[in-house]
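Exercise 7.
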Amino acid sequence: MTARAATLPIGTVTRGTTNPNRLRRMDRWIAATHGAELRRAADPVAIDLGYGAAPWTAVELLGRLRTAAPRARVVGVEIEPARVAAAEPYEREGLVFRHGGFEIPVPQRPHLIRAANVLRQYDETEVAAVWERLCGRLAPAGPDSRGGLLVEGTCDEIGRRHVWVALGPEGPRTVTFATRLGSLERPSDLAERLPKALIHRNVPGEPVHAFLRNFDRAWASAAPYASYGARQRWIRAVRDLTADWPVTDSAARWRQGEVTVAWGALAPRN
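Solution. The predicted structure, written as tokens, is:
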């Protein structure tokens, strides 16, 4: 009994809802910003943690990562054994499925862990410990590497709106807001997709609330650019934000309906 308990997955079963192409924005960002790290790795392993009732997100992750790192491999990890059994027919070269949880049941240190719509179903007080555990499993930094990457966040059911935190072995690095611009009335519409570490902090006095308030103001000021399209309005609004907020990416990513901000600027106040 003791030996068996030691092998039990860490975590709880989530609802498992998923849809094809739901995580495309996150995947493309990962391929663009982390692709070089994956290419440098001798054996670049990525984990799709909590892929859900169907394996679509793991299948898609492999395809998107291989556009940037052709040797990348993906391991889909699910805590519900029946979901693993249902996914096994989709295994192929570079893609396998394993039963497990936050312990990450692979022998090597992954270069990527993607956990989308997983912690949303946990309590906010549990987030820090989960982050620490997952970051501790990442490939370590080295002379020519920042190490592995954990990407944890939340999106809507069809992937139009998404917010995620990127973390390295050392902890949180950045927060990215990503959206299909045609669906957006104002930037603060993304508040409902804040990850668990931030969603309850969108209140006056917290940095993330101030950021979204300022983003809405910049969006309103950029209204004249709407005649050139929502993309140009977004780019102008983000450019205005850079005067007061540590935006870490460039117009090449803003054009995709994204903006990435240093974690320290949005981190909850204790």
